[in-house]
Design a protein that fits this description.
about 400 residues, alpha/beta, Aspartate Aminotransferase, domain 1, Aspartate Aminotransferase, domain 2, seven-stranded mixed sheet, 14 helices, about 40% helix, binds pyridoxal-5'-phosphate
Amino acid sequence: MSRPDLLARIADAQAQRARAGLLRRLRTVDSVEGPHIVVAGKSLIDFASNDYLGLAQHPALREALTRTAKKWGVGAGAAHLLGGHRDEHAALEEKLARWTGRERALLFSTGYMANLGVGGALLGNGDVCVQDKLNHASLIDATRLSGAELVRYRHADVDSAGRQLRARPHAAAMLTTDAVFSMDGDLAPLVDLSTLCKTHNATLMVDDAHGIGVLGADGAGSLSDADLSQNDAPVLMSTLGKALGVTGAFVAGSTALIDGLIQFARPYVYTTAIPPAFAAAASAAVDIARDDNERRARLHQHIARFRDGAAARGIALLPSRTPIQPVPIGDSATASAIAQQLEVAGFHVPAIRPPSVPANGARLRVSLSAAHAQSDIERLLDAFVVVLGPKRH
Ligand SMILES: *Cc1c(COP(=O)(O)O)cnc(C)c1O
């Protein structure tokens, strides 16, 4: 029996993906100025960024970053537990806990790692994790890595989730959901999921990567928007890399949860702390995201304008009140061709294709930012009318 060669196998998989026209393409962005980017010498208005509040280039974040880098240097030099933890990390954790209305918060290097950390620390063999079918890849991977059984329920369907929990009455259970679904922009039924979890004694974990800074009173996120306390939603995870414009992530919840994660979350224990300068920049970002309601209002005006303008032009959208506003297309090749035409017209709007979305679920994923001008949005809608052609429904 001959042993398969791993590099030959991955090359085959890549060739197969290329034949299907589904290759992912890596491109270098030459410059960024607010929502304007330059790629391959061409200036584009960017509708792909998760920088929903336009904070990634904000002077207050730049100032906090450079001031703190002057103080500490660049790298933290060690994991949190081995000397990498500084005042800036501690202050940011306290600020995040207060903002989200939780007892404590704990920083991770990325949202992906935070999700792996929670899954690995809370779940193990014999347990079950019940997940929305459209959850982010990192949540799926977290359960796989934990050894718990992964079962999925129909998208945003509380009855379907309930059936999955009832089918496993004796296993320790977590129910995990994106708060804002990253490829659809719609919201999870958080209040009903919270009630369901209480009924079945399951632990609710909410990934609010796209809600923090965008939704809720003072931008505190989807749980604040749904008025769910720490008791209602015991595990909250969010990233610092999207609306907050930096990088890193956090988990927030009870003291018992955070103390447990510090001991048992391997992606927390065995990795270098994020640079203190990033923690300081994120802290400045939280101040703005919490206090600058005008900036958030501008984003929501853009969302309303985009949806009204699409309706007026007969462009079908998905039900979303968030900055994620996908234009459904279906066929992958068509979606790619439309993305290409939009680029020629001066807009960067990525085509999202399988496996990131279900088969025949290709779409143009428009993401809006407070940094956009009203005219950017009107021009994008006009360009969509041209590229989608006369039959748009
Ligand atoms: C982006 C994203 C993550 C990962 O966060 P990073 O900080 O970018 O690693 C996790 N969950 C969801 C739903 C996301 O959209």
